[in-house]
Amino acid sequence: MGKTLVGKVALVTGGSRGIGAAIAKRLAEEGADVAISYVASAQKAEDVVRELQGQGVRAAAFQADQAHPAEVTALVQAAAKHFGKLDILVNSAGVFVTGVVGDPSSDVAAFDKQFAINVGGVAAAVRAAVPLLSDGGRIISIGTTGASRAPFAGIGDYVASKAAVAAYTRAWARDLGPRGITVNIVQPGAIDTDMNPANSAHASALTQLAALGRYGRPEELAAAVAFLAGPDASYITGTTLNVDGGQTT
């Protein structure tokens, strides 16, 4: 089977680690040139870039703090300028901050920053990308199944931020449909990364929620993103795709 993204240019925010890195690698495997962003892990980002280049594609890393819209705008513009165009935007960068509502010990500033990154950063990236995206382009965001259900206490601020992105996704699909640009969101369940390892203290509870009885692999989520970025998904837009092992069944 041939590569589906040859000649395309993708930007993956938060592509230096975890899910973002897996997505960047899968898009490169499909033939896309890939830009990734990072906040502080410059060495990790360069390691990913070398791995992408090993796939025979062009790759580059750019530093940007998703909490600052001006930096996000500069990131998108720099990536498009570096590669000469932009076809695919994947909003993968995000943070996970928990705390029960009303708890006086909660770090409210951390909640505010989480919303700035998870919502404001995505909105800034899309707004900057729209004038640069080719007609028929792709916008794909990474959400969470918690956007439609909250199985644990203390995740209100996080899941609210991801629910906002899901709502944006549906609205942006309407806005950008006339240009053939599709906008979708992939909502993972428990995925085995350094931020949520399959051997953590709460892993057993999360595993039991999934019909498949296990954590997912970053590569399994990346496969869904690659599909939505490819030509076979040209009539799919405004859609939420859960990649959760049956957690929401």
Short description:
With 249 residues, the chain is of the alpha/beta class. 41% of the residues lie in helices and 17% in strands.
Structural account:
With 249 residues, the protein is of the alpha/beta class. The chain has one domain (9-243): Rossmann fold. Helix content is 41%, strand content 17%. It has helices at residues 18-29, 42-53, 69-83, 108-129, 156-176, 203-209, 218-229; strands at residues 9-12, 33-38, 59-63, 86-91, 133-142, 182-188, 240-243. Strands 3-2-1-4-5-6-7 form a 7-stranded parallel beta sheet, sandwiched between helices. β1 (9-12), α1 and β2 form a beta-alpha-beta unit. α1 (18-29) crosses α7 (218-229) and α4 packs parallel to α5. The chain is globular.
Output the keywords.
7 helices, 7 strands
Spell out the blueprint of helices and strands.
Layout: E1 9-12, H1 18-29, E2 33-38, H2 42-53, E3 59-63, H3 69-83, E4 86-91, H4 108-129, E5 133-142, H5 156-176, E6 182-188, H6 203-209, H7 218-229, E7 240-243
Parallel strand pairs: 1-2, 1-4, 2-3, 4-5, 5-6, 6-7
Helix pairs in contact: 1-2, 1-7, 3-4, 4-5
Tell me the count of domains. 1
What is the name of the CATH architecture? Answer: 3-Layer(aba) Sandwich
Overall mean pLDDT score? 95
* Gyration radius from CA atoms, angstroms: 17 Å
Span between N and C termini? 32 Å
Instruction: Give helix % range.
Output: 40-55%
Identify the overall geometry: globular
CATH C-level class is Alpha Beta
- Portion of residues in beta strands equals 15-25%
Would you report the number of β strands? 7
What are the low-pLDDT stretches, counting only 5+ consecutive residues below 50? Answer: none
Structural class: alpha/beta
CATH level 3 topology = Rossmann fold
Main sheet attributes: strand count, strand direction, barrel closure: 7 strands, parallel
Number of helices: 7
Tell me the strand order in the biggest sheet: 3-2-1-4-5-6-7
Protein name: 3-oxoacyl-[acyl-carrier protein] reductase
GO molecular function, one term: oxidoreductase activity
Family: Belongs to the short-chain dehydrogenases/reductases (SDR) family.
Pfam families: adh_short_C2 (PF13561)
